[in-house]
Amino acid sequence: MADELNNAEGGTDGFPQGEQRQGRVGRGRGRGGNDRGGERGGRGRRDDRNKRDEEQGEELIEKLVHINRVSKTVKGGKRFGFAALVVVGDGQGRAGFGHGKAREVPEAISKATAAAKKKMIRVPLKEGRTLHHDGKGHFGAGKVTLRSAPQGTGIIAGGPMRAVFESLGVADVVTKSNGTSNPYNMIRATFEALGEQTSPKSVAARRGKKVADLLGRGGASAAVAEVEAAAITE
After folding, report:
1. Alpha-carbon span 210 to 73, nearest angstrom
2. Closest residue by Cα to residue 186 from 228, 127, 141, 234
3. Residues 180-195: pLDDT tens digits?
4. Is CATH 3.30.160.20 correct for 61-121?
């Protein structure tokens, strides 16, 4: 008699059989729901990050410099992938580079772009179009020389170096590359030379002087030095 009562009610726990089965299914969905909730949370964080970038109004210039097919030897054969080198910049004096590897080309480019955005540097520009002074960079077998140029010169650079200056926002510059033509070494040497760029304003602040005093030491009159100092914004 007790067994018949238990079967009629759905079990010894006092719940009807249908409700008990629904409770089990609910617990199973709860476990799965946690995983899906985590995925939704990850997408939410990425969406928030994208929204912050949009709110900041930062439009970056992305340049794909080089892409190469790479392989890894594993048990049973070779596993092929792709390596990408990307340069990004805002066109207003900030630029960075990065590289990434993946099994597919789009994923490799996205990894390289994300790495480049994390390593962006600020380069002071003269009148917003050229460098303040000449510079040299060296990395591995790559040697580069950068020279400021008058207005209308354009970007006289080839290969990876052109991508750097276009994304940086430089309009007039003359460059020369010696040694290797490896794009990785050329990019690193170029950024080493850009990292040594200084502006008259930063030098004057470091030395405790006025910008006009530094510009006047080159033989210019005091009035011309004052005008040039007022024109320097960075």
Report:
1. 61
2. 141
3. 889 999 999 999 999 9
4. yes
